Amino acid sequence: MSTNDTPPEEPKAPLPPKQDEPATPPRDTAPVPPEAPGQPESPVQPAGAGRSGGPDGAGRQRLAAGLWPPRFSRAQLIVALLLFVLGLGLAIQVRSNSDSGALRGARQEDLVRILDELDGRTQRLEDEKQQLEDQRRELENSSNQAEEARRQTVEKERQLGILAGTVAAQGPGITLRITDPKGQVQSDQLLDTLQELRAAGAEAIQINGVRVVAGSYFSDEGGGIAIDGKKIAQPYEFKVIGKPQDLEPALNIPGGVVQTLEKEQATVAVTRSAKIVVDALRAAKQPDYARSSSS
């Protein structure tokens, strides 16, 4: 076997660089020359640029995440609120200036008319407000409407009964006593006394046990006086319910009832009382033809 038949030696692998020595670049890698100043850098895109999984795609995602949703600090919110308020105030000021400028150029008659319209509108609004409040109270008390209606009906019936003489009454008032020993007092003088008491505010009157109402009449009969056909004897005693401070002065005015009766040599005595009872009653009459319009 000749020496030429020896197998070639296997290439040895290069030894790794030592830790304290820098690794030398491969021989086939040429150094990148520095770019000249003023020349634009050549766009060098790494592999995978432009794809969603590349560095640029990840950067855009981070940028979008940083921009939305927006994050505001407390100072920024306060500044924004102040700017909004300032803008609103300026808008209101500009509008008021324009309105005042329009009013400034108006005539006096127009200004008076505008004020009258404003006053009328204000009054109408106040009336509507009062009506709405009344309706609200009525609705709130709707559960008690039936009871309130019944109570008002009973009270109205009592008042009408007092005026008609069908129910008894009591209250403050006066007692008027007329003594006529010579029989000089006539029915017309008693009628004048009744009218004076009614004008002074008398609400219920009884004379010698006879209830006097709106349809009562006086007449002279057999040397005496009759009320509604019932003859009464002296002394004539009036029981009157009303305000005593008004009834007594009305009888004692100069030239009034007391002086007129005293001229007929009659004796008149007026006594105030905190409680006058008028218990003479009249029978309620059923009308023959009149009917209630609500029925």
From TrEMBL:
Signal peptide: none annotated. Gene3D superfamilies: Protein of unknown function DUF881. Residues 1-62 are annotated as: Disordered. Residues 108-159 form a coiled coil. Keywords: Coiled coil, Membrane, Transmembrane, Transmembrane helix. The keyword Membrane applies. The chain crosses the membrane at residues 75-94. Belongs to the UPF0749 family. This is DUF881 domain-containing protein.
